[in-house]
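Hello everyone,

My group is preparing for a crystallization screen and wants a predicted model to guide construct design. The compound we'll soak is coenzyme A. Before spending weeks at the bench, it would help to have a computed complex in hand. I've included the protein sequence and the ligand's SMILES below. Output in structure-token form would be ideal because that's what our pipeline reads.
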Amino acid sequence: MITIRPMTIEDYDEVFAMWQITSKRALSSADEREQIARYLERNKGLSQVAVSDGKIIGTVLAGHDGRRGFIHHMAVLPEYRRRHIGHALAEKAIENIRAEGIEKTHIFCYRDNEAGQKFWSDLGFVRRDDIFDFSL
Ligand SMILES: CC(C)(COP(=O)(O)OP(=O)(O)OC[C@H]1O[C@@H](n2cnc3c(N)ncnc32)[C@H](O)[C@@H]1OP(=O)(O)O)[C@@H](O)C(=O)NCCC(=O)NCCS
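Reply:
Good plan to model first. Here are the tokens for the complex, ready for your pipeline.
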């Protein structure tokens, strides 16, 4: 059975190992233990993991800045994909963000990540071609 529950910092080692498989390109210093601990503390109860037989097989980081929601590291281990586990994780994350009074949620997706784009479109997210993302 697969369960979805809030992520805690105790999950960090397993989650980080999973991200080495699913999300390597998106990893940065923001994913070090201390930063993730701060993120989880700041966005209490919003990020989720999917667990099968005690093993973490999916993640979603969810938070907001008081105005807009943001989702990061939406990921499912390859052998568990296309079973709507990603869907369930994303829906829970969005529900949690909405419960905090935030209506709109943004995600970042690499332009060449076609599966990612299909995944978000399937969930009803609309791709924005009218804006650039500027980072510092
Ligand atoms: C994207 C990802 C999280 C999807 O997880 P998942 O559990 O397989 O997704 P779901 O089973 O919930 O898929 C829901 C729907 O999304 C779409 N979708 C998901 N993966 C797809 C793929 N590889 N190709 C085409 N459509 C896809 C489909 O419409 C699918 O519905 P269907 O299976 O009934 O056709 C997973 O592929 C992953 O971890 N990829 C690597 C990390 C990544 O790119 N994350 C997204 C960053 S923007």
